């Protein structure tokens, strides 16, 4: 297996140096390939001078002469080169080390085969790789996500829409890909054949992401379109992203420092819980708390009156309760344990009703569980807590009077007044999942005697609260029963699943982006990536039993065996796969014959 060994210590022989092309400023560098089968070989690549030109490779010295590549021929021909040609040049510097295992859209094993072929044939690696392109995984995504491109075209130019769509597909298929590797992945896939004029490059992607961040109104308009067409059941939640760039304008030490041990930035999204797709996506400073960033979100967009916000506990604050209901909207939010209405509700853990809830297990199986509940209002609970405080104060005063000696004036404890909410009519509902309650009691009981924290006394104290959750909502009791409030809030889990996909499947974490505008542009791309995921999952769900039981990754991985191969007569063909894998292409809507016809027509 030939592996390039780059070294600046090897001297270029005079006879080789004399073969440099005349009339242009250039340099020669040595690249040594070390193969176990054929030994070491020296290659002499010619570069345009970095001081007077681009510094890119323009050919190599081979067979006693200078052999220019396409760029070299253009320069020697005196035609010059515009920026677009520079961005789309397929020949890249061989001394630019490629760390990404997905270079040219190929896996690590596939790329090794290509490199070995290149060494044996004594030709450039890029020229070999571009005759073999990734097809299957991109074809199934393109076949079922065309509506995403159409939506982008309503707000962006055709060219910008295609670029956003192409980048989103690459992130979905290849995981998050830094700008420095985008060109390799794009050129090594059918995306380059579909949109050859995009000519994606590192500089182009970087400048485009920055431009997206510099024009937030355009991105916000796209989000507003999604909000207007949404189901109305809208989850709001934040996601912490580790940042590896010390210069990131948004990076700061936040609430996850103990877990990640580094600076973070926060992404806040509104998410359609029914259609399972993101509606907005904005990056915020790493130390900005959720209940502050949500104010910016709700003031930046217009959510329809039909909207019901499903909000996480971190967004609970009396100041924000007015925002969640503004314009006739509704909300459901868990109440923190420290809130007075939660303390009042938990002062008596009793229930007045119950209902069955259909729970879906990880394997997709449904089963019914019992949920018990009791309902009150914010005002009633504030009154109850005030009575509790008054009783405590009275008891203290009585104890102080009893302890006072004859003739002494007893200490008088003042009455503590409860700070009242402006929205006393809000419903507060305490739910308990009986299955979870029984499970947690059993787990606690199994540890009794293992330490001082696990005793029968502690179980009596804590046991009633196991499986408990208290929610606050302004949904009408007459039209939305407690069971529906609970079911609606459970839909909030869809955004948690989405963030799990963002972090663990497409690896949108550990970012090195430092520019504020670029980070906002990258954050916006999480929306079309999420749209692509939603459309892809829906297509899988409507496919055959074999396909719909695959995970996203399994489906993409199995489709990767289908490669686009260029034959000796410059015609493209699709490599063969098993019947099961061919079924994936068919079920996901791919028309191979049509794709090949279009590819080969473009070659004419």
Q: Which outline best applies?
A: elongated
State the helix count.
Answer: 26
Oligomer: single chain
Mean pLDDT comes to 83
- The unreliable regions are 1-9, 79-104
Strand residue content: 15-25%
- Round the Cα radius of gyration to an integer and report it: 32 Å
Helix-and-strand structural type: alpha+beta
Largest sheet: 10 strands, mixed
Kindly, what is the distance between the CA atoms of the first and last residues, rounded to a whole number of angstroms?
Answer: 36 Å
The strand count comes to 18
**Domain unit count:** 4
Portion of residues in helices?
Answer: 40-55%
List the helices and strands and how they pair.
Elements: E1 3-6, H1 14-17, E2 26-35, E3 39-48, E4 57-62, E5 65-68, H2 70-76, H3 83-88, H4 108-121, H5 125-129, E6 132-134, H6 136-144, H7 146-153, H8 158-174, H9 179-187, H10 190-194, H11 202-214, H12 216-228, E7 233-242, H13 257-260, E8 264-272, E9 277-278, E10 282-284, H14 290-300, E11 308-311, H15 318-325, E12 330-334, H16 340-346, E13 353-360, E14 366-377, H17 378-403, E15 427-433, H18 434-446, H19 456-462, E16 468-473, H20 482-490, H21 493-504, H22 516-541, H23 545-548, H24 552-559, E17 563-566, E18 572-574, H25 579-587, H26 592-601
Parallel strand pairs: 7-11, 11-12
Antiparallel strand pairs: 1-2, 2-3, 3-4, 4-5, 6-17, 7-8, 8-9, 8-10, 12-16, 13-14, 14-15, 15-16, 17-18
Helix pairs in contact: 6-24, 7-8, 8-22, 9-11, 11-22, 16-17
């Amino acid at each position: 297996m030939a592996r390039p060994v780059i070294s600046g210590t090897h001297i270029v022989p005079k006879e080789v140096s004399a073969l440099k092309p005349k009339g242009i400023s250039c340099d020669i560098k040595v690249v040594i390939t070390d193969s176990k089968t054929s030994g070491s070989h020296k290659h002499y690549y010619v570069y345009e001078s970095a001081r007077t030109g681009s510094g890119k490779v323009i050919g190599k010295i081979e067979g006693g002469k200078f052999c220019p590549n396409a760029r070299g021929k253009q320069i020697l021909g005196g035609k010059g080169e515009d920026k677009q040609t520079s961005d789309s040049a397929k020949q890249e510097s061989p001394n630019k080390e490629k760390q990404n295992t997905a270079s040219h859209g190929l896996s690590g094993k596939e790329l090794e085969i290509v490199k070995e072929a290149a060494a044996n044939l004594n030709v450039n690696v890029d020229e070999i790789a571009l005759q073999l392109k990734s097809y299957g995984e991109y074809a199934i995504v393109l076949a079922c996500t065309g509506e995403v491109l159409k939506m982008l075209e309503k707000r962006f130019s055709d060219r910008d829409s295609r670029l956003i769509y192409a980048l989103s597909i690459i992130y979905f298929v290849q995981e998050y890909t830094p700008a420095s590797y985008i060109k390799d992945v794009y050129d090594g896939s059918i995306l380059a054949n579909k949109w050859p004029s995009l000519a994606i490059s590192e500089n182009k992607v970087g400048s485009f992401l920055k431009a997206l961040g510099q024009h937030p109104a355009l991105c916000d308009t796209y989000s507003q379109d999604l909000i207007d067409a949404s189901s109305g059941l809208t989850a709001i939640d934040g996601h912490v992203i580790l940042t590896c760039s010390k210069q990131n304008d948004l990076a700061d030490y936040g609430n996850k420092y103990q877990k990640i041990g580094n600076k973070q930035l926060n992404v806040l999204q509104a998410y359609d819980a029914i259609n399972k797709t993101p509606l907005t996506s904005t990056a915020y400073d790493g130390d900005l708390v959720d209940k502050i960033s949500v104010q910016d979100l709700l003031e930046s967009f217009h959510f329809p009156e039909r909207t019901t916000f499903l909000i996480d506990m971190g967004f609970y604050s009396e100041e924000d309760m007015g925002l969640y209901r503004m314009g006739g909207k509704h909300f459901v939010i868990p109440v923190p344990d420290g809130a007075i209405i939660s303390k009042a509700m938990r002062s008596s853990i009793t229930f007045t009703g119950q209902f069955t809830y259909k729970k879906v297990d990880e394997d997709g199986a449904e089963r019914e569980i019992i949920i018990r509940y009791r309902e009150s209002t914010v005002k009633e609970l504030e009154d109850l807590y005030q009575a509790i405080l008054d009783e405590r104060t009275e008891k203290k005063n009585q104890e102080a009077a009893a302890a006072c000696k004859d003739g002494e004036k007893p200490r008088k404890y003042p009455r503590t007044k409860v700070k009242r909410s402006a929205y006393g009519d809000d419903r507060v509902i305490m739910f308990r999942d009986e299955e979870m309650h029984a499970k947690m009691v059993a787990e606690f009981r199994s540890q009794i005697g293992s330490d001082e924290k696990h005793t029968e006394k502690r179980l009596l104290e804590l046991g009633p609260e196991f499986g408990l959750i208290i929610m606050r909502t302004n949904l009408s009791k007459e039209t939305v029963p407690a069971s529906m409030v609970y079911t609606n809030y459970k839909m909030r889990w869809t955004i948690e699943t989405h963030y799990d996909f963002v972090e663990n499947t497409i690896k949108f974490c550990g970012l090195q982006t430092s520019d504020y505008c670029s980070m906002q542009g990258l954050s916006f791309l999480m929306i079309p990536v999420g749209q692509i995921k939603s459309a892809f999952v829906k297509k899988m769900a409507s496919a055959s039993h074999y396909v719909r039981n695959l995970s996203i990754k399994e489906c993409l991985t199995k489709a990767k065996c289908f490669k686009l191969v260029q034959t000796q007569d410059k015609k493209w063909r699709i490599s063969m796969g098993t019947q099961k894998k061919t079924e994936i292409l068919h079920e996901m809507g791919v028309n191979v014959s049509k794709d090949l016809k279009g590819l080969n027509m473009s070659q004419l």
